[in-house]
Specification:
Length: 303
C-alpha cells in the first residue's frame, strides 16, 4: 500500500487530529503517502439547535463514512465522544489511541470557577450532559446553547455573549489553547462523555489490510476504558438526547467505571459504579444500576 486518504471534518481541531494520525502512520510506514480529505458534515452546518434535536452524533460522521464506502477515503479520524454508540453495518473502529485529559474545562474572562458566578450569569454549552451537571450544582445560573467549533465558541465568549463556557480540555490542549482554561472541572463536578479525550480511527470492516496497519496506533488500556463507557450508552439506547456521562480507568488490571444519567434540568441525577475485566459487561452493569434507579423514566421524559 503506497497511498492512504483520511476523511476528516474541516474544523481546525478535526484537521489537527487527522494530521496527528497522518504523522504517526508516516512514521510507522516510511514511504507511505497519506493525504487528507477535508469535508463538511451536517453536524458542522446545523448550528442553530442542539445535536439531539438535529439528529444526534451521527451528524458528524455520516459524510465521512459515505466517502469511505464510495472509495474516496480509506479511513476517518473522529473524537470518540462524537461517535454514535452503534456503528453502521460494515464499519469498524480499527484503533482507539491513548487518551488526552478527559475532563471538562471552565473557560471565562471574568470568573475563576462556576462557584464564583452570580445568579443569572450565562454559561454556554451545546451538551445536555454538561448543562444538566451545572444545573444540578448551580441552579441559579443560566445555561445557553453554544454551537460551533472550539475557536468560534471561545470568540463568542470573548465578545461577551456568555459569561463562561464549558468545553472539553482535550480540544483546547490540542489547539494550543490550554492557557484559556480557568478551572479543570473534577470528575465529580462534570463526568465526561463516553470516549471524551480519545481519538478513534474508523474504516470498512472488509479492509483487513488497513486493520493490520492501524492496530499499532491503538492503546489497549484506553480502548478497554472507552469500550466500557460506550457500552453504558449502548445499553441505554445510545441516544444523543440522553444527558449521559461515563468514565472508566484501569486499576490493577481491572476496569473501574463511573456513570451518570441526568434529567435535562439537573433536578434528578442518577449515578452508578461498576468494576470488572470485561468492558461490555462492566458497561452493561452500570447501565442496569442506572435503570434500577429510574433511568428509563428520565429517558422517556426526553423524547
Amino acid at each position: 500500500m503506497k497511498r492512504l486518504v483520511i476523511a476528516t471534518r474541516r474544523s481546525r481541531l478535526a484537521l489537527w487530529q487527522a494530521e496527528h494520525v497522518k504523522s504517526r502512520l508516516e512514521l510507522l510506514r516510511p514511504g507511505l503517502s497519506v493525504e487528507l480529505l477535508p469535508m463538511s458534515t451536517r453536524g458542522d452546518e446545523l448550528l442553530d439547535r442542539r445535536l439531539d434535536q438535529a439528529g444526534g452524533k451521527g451528524l458528524f460522521v455520516k459524510e465521512l463514512e459515505t466517502a469511505m464506502a464510495a472509495g474516496r477515503a480509506d479511513l476517518a479520524v473522529h473524537s470518540m465522544k462524537d461517535v454514535p454508540a452503534e456503528l453502521p453495518a460494515g464499519f469498524v473502529l480499527a484503533a482507539i489511541s491513548a487518551r488526552e485529559d478527559p475532563r471538562d474545562a471552565f473557560v471565562s474572562t471574568r470568573f475563576a470557577t462556576l462557584g464564583d458566578m452570580p445568579a443569572g450569569a450565562a454559561v454556554g454549552t451545546s451538551s445536555l450532559r454538561r448543562a444538566a451537571q451545572v444545573r444540578e450544582r448551580y441552579p441559579a445560573l443560566e445555561l445557553r446553547l453554544l454551537r460551533g467549533n472550539v475557536e468560534t465558541r471561545v470568540a463568542k465568549l470573548d465578545r461577551g455573549e456568555y459569561d463562561a463556557i464549558v468545553l472539553a480540555v482535550a480540544g483546547l490542549v490540542r489547539l494550543g489553547l490550554a492557557a484559556r482554561i480557568r478551572t479543570h472541572l473534577s470528575l465529580e463536578d462534570s463526568l465526561p462523555a463516553p470516549g471524551q479525550g480519545a481519538l478513534g480511527i474508523e474504516c470498512l470492516a472488509s479492509r483487513t489490510d488497513l486493520l493490520q496497519m492501524l492496530a499499532p496506533l491503538g492503546d489497549a488500556a484506553t480502548a478497554l476504558c472507552v469500550r466500557a463507557e460506550r457500552a453504558v450508552s449502548r445499553a441505554l439506547g445510545g441516544s444523543c438526547a440522553l444527558p449521559l456521562g461515563a468514565h472508566a480507568v484501569m486499576r490493577d488490571g481491572r476496569l473501574a467505571l463511573g456513570a451518570l444519567v441526568a434529567a435535562a434540568d439537573g433536578r434528578r441525577v442518577l449515578r452508578a459504579q461498576a468494576e470488572g475485566s470485561d468492558p461490555e459487561a462492566v458497561g452493561a452493569a452500570a447501565a442496569r444500576a442506572l435503570r434500577d434507579q429510574g433511568a428509563d423514566a428520565i429517558l422517556k421524559s426526553l423524547i
